[in-house]
Amino acid sequence: MFSYEKKLQYPVKIKTPNPKLASFIISQYGGPDGELGASLRYLSQRYAMPYAELKGLLTDIGTEELGHLEMIGAIVHQLTRNISDTDARIAEFAPYFVDHTTGVYPTAASGFPWSAASMAVKGDVIADLTEDMAAEQKARVTYDNILRLCDDPDVTDVIRFLREREVVHFQRFGEAVRLAKEKMDQKNIYFTNPVTDK
Ligand SMILES: [Fe+2]
Question: Ligand 1 center to residue 139 CA distance, Å?
């Protein structure tokens, strides 16, 4: 079970609305490398993970990603709160506005709604952990791209925090792969599944 703490992992306090920026940042809410997919990927992969410490790692990082999802939701909300009709007509934001007004909806910046097809749960130790390392790198690149599009220090400060966490997660999954390999047959260079590959 989860217990809810009514505060963000890192504070989000944006003074100036900017719907154009929100239309890009929403991708880390419901895009292919966003926080919703990250949390569901790890919190789903953990069931088939045979090693207790790695199951714990997936639970730990998956839960933190839920906290990041909440932060991205807060950023999008604060960037679009109380906007004028003139702001709603900004070309980049108008397509989102017509479908969702200023509600926070899990979609990619390109307009494609969140899909479970953007994440994987293979039920194989090496396949899943390798997927997780790639996912963290893709999330980091998305944050890099957002930083290139963003000038507001209230936003970049939070995005930099989230980017840093992706780097830490990548490192932790790297350690997890090393640990998993130590536990598996070291002579099995392909790291095939010991359950089926006798
Ligand atoms: Fe992450």
Answer: 7
